[in-house]
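INPUT
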Amino acid sequence: MASKTTKKAKPVETIKEEPIEIRRQMRLMQGNEAVAIGALDAGVNFFAGYPITPSTEIAEILAYELPKRGGVFIQMEDEIASISAITGASLAGAKSLTATSGPGFSLMQEGIGYAKITETPCVVVNVQRVGPSTGMPTSPAQGDIMQSKWGSHGDSPAIVLYPDSVKESYELTIRAVNLAEKYRTCVILLMDEVIGHMREAVALPDVANIRIISRIKPTIPPNWYKHYDENQKYLSPLASFGDGYRFNVTGLTHDQLGFPTNKKVEAHDMMERLRKKISYNIRDLVQIESRDMEDAKIAIFAAGITARSAKSAVAAARAEGIPVGLLRPLTIWPFPDDAVRKMLRNVDIVIVPELNQGQLIQELKRLTKDKADGDLIPIQRADGALITPLDILRVIREVH
Amino acid sequence: MASIPQKVVHEYLRHDKKFPHVWCAGCSNGIVLGAIIRAIAEMELNRNDIVMVSGIGCSSRMPVYIDLNTLHTLHGRAIAYATGVKMYKPNMKVIVVTGDGDCTAIGGNHLIHAARRNIDLTVILINNNIYGMTGGQASPTTPHDAIATTAPYGNIEPDFDICQLAMGAGASFVARTTAFHAIETQNYVKEALNHPGFSLLEVVSACPVIYGRMNKKGSAPDMMKAMRDNSIPLTAYEKLPKEQTEGKIIRGILRREIRPEYTDEYAKLCVRAQGGDNE
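OUTPUT
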């Protein structure tokens, strides 16, 4: 944000907040707060958003912090405008992010598709709540797992990260911004309401020790520039408006220069490019946590807050001598196919607890190939309550 | 103004990229494109510092053809994308080209809020009273009783006065002209680009192939003549008795006032947040 000459203004009373330096020390921190600080540490300098429970704290903290750093905070008229504004700002060179929840996430879907087809880096944080529709705004659910991949019309390969703690919310926010910049796409950070609002003791690392990735800028002369150039791993440089490259961006199917096309060959190339830049980089994108899986006969597959319950259940069951382990995806899209296949081969039973009517389990069914694979046992609820460690432990005891 | 040779217009077009264009014979969009280019050339603006943003529709195809930083976005959302660009790079000139359906139906919310904020965007709204690209459906500016494919018995809805809407929402520069008045369009584009704040220019235009045929408005030249004959300058409007001005398109700068501009205000806010006193 270039500053302009300013005139005298009346002093304005501001809300007093704790300085970030104090917030970094070991203290009780809320998940949404960790996301906001993670965004700042990742270099986010543009936020546009609209208030919605349970994500609003992210906007509130950034409204306070971004102006202090010369970044932009703007409260838009709705979520559609928010995703649009962060995409426009990103094309002008910003590292941009928005935060929302279920209903707002639904409204943003067309814009998310636009950011993906135009390969524009940005991050959408979705602090999930119970749906459909207005649902239960202050209660947790994991009902947006499929929407975060399939919510926008058309095929749209997705990168979606899913933390299970306050500390990890901070880390994965930084990772989300890094991946958005690297892969030139809209990356989604899925949060659970409980993690967004939960407070945990966290100490944040020194900013100097954090790895930050920024988009590659073109160095070639403007008339050689292709907005969607290809190289081996489908990661291409990105010019910003004002850099002298004068490129065109459109949500229509386009050629490598960014101009609309109806040619089947060019449409095919564009679609393959969108697909391959994800599927050719699975190793870089997928992160999983594997716990007590070496000798496990029973596995639990869970993400986010449900995995927290699962961790307690695993510890309790292990204390009873039951060989149980946990596999937890930190990246849910692209789905960790290889790790899940290996798990299915090695265990007799996979318990899949999730706060919805069966979304993650669909992916496990897709990967179940033969009879020797472990049986799938669902634990599902979508009523705003959590699945407790005891709920999972009971099932472990039953199937053991 | 008229001294700008045709060659200048050609210099700004992306001939080697995506021509021929998609517009029908007789469409007004080309006239407006020419007027915008001549205005930019006359003002000697640096092309690298101009972003043209559009939504979806016939008029919104314009950015593809012009050699600027161009952003063809989602239906109705051009102003929201433009707001993002302008907020991050406030020194760039941001032009939004849009239509009556794009800007006042699906994008109405963004229009009124950008006008309220008084953010320095230049919105050029080409109003052809119909959804042309999808084949002739009624828009918020389709006149009462006019025929559209989705109003086959005649349109029962009253139409928006776009300039009144923008003024009501707080736009600080509002002007209207028609595509017949090409030089006036060019001049108003310049005025709008020079205005420090939200500006809206409505260019009443002709869609002879779709709206004109359905409503028996005659040929493209007939519709051009109608724009000439049915419009009056604001100065004349103010003098004439009401009977003689009824139903006329009023051309002119309907509002021009200076009030705090949003990116300026935001820059001041940043100074305040950083402990400065805006001196």
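end of record. Strands of chain B lie at 50-54, 69-72, 93-99, 122-127, 173-178, 199-204, 231-233, 249-256.
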